[in-house]
């Protein structure tokens, strides 16, 4: 698998090494629903997700547009209140009062995909980065903190950027300003939603390398939301593949992306330019989240079921009629697929 940056160096967390056995952030049975239009059933955007992110770990959340990735990411930061389940940060359940969320967001920060849309064009770089300090009442030594955040984000010398406006910066520089605005509060977790999607290919590698360096220098944890499996390969320790509101495969990035077990993961990987064999073209569009199919939610598009392999393995009825269940958030290699569970050797690529 190719990419614009080298694979991450695991374990590159500065000493003293924190306790990585307990998750920094943990999600149990998370559900997010939105009311249906004109009496229609509620849309189940996130439909039962367990996910752990450990200290110093980068997890990539991958899947098609509309699968629920961004809704899940926003719910982890308290921007969307779950309809069910629980989010726990550093051992404490996330509370949704304004005061509790304000305190939480000093420790967990969002990095958006479109720096042009997330930066106020009327504010200087200095004021953009300083905004978090002012909101959270940490304006003491503001100039030093802003300079340090810009420098960590790769904008050096930082004073050169203080009085610039977003339109005077390149796309890569604007994304670095967004990252600096997150770093200025010294968070423990970054949630990055498609952090390089709007950037030129030549700049993407620089931003990915920056995120890896921040993990190595600061011990940051991160959830990186992306549809780009190449990005996941280059930056993540672990990957979670999401389909129609639920994680359907998870495990170490090398394992999932070199030996995918779920037919959906196999289809996503098959269309990469360097993938061997014939690309898998899935039939139809993902079902409406207000009308999720029974059984395995992927079965109506599944190439394994449609091609007769599930029938030959004796699991076709289970695919159509039995929910494979919610994967736990432990990080172990897991797959929500009756066929993969029944015939693991049959799914190895090659």
Automatic annotation (TrEMBL):
Pfam family, one: ABC_tran
InterPro entries per the UniProt record, alphabetical: AAA+_ATPase, ABC_transp_ATP-bind, ABC_transporter-like_ATP-bd, ABC_transporter-like_CS, Oligopep_ABC_C, P-loop_NTPase
Segments forming domain ABC transporter: 27-269
GO molecular function: ATP binding
Gene3D superfamilies per UniProt: P-loop containing nucleotide triphosphate hydrolases
Signal sequence residues: none
Region of interest (Disordered), residue spans: 1-22
Keyword annotations of the record: ATP-binding, Nucleotide-binding, Transport
Family, per entry: Belongs to the ABC transporter superfamily.
Name by which UniProt lists this protein: ABC transporter ATP-binding protein
Organism per entry: Streptomyces lienomycini
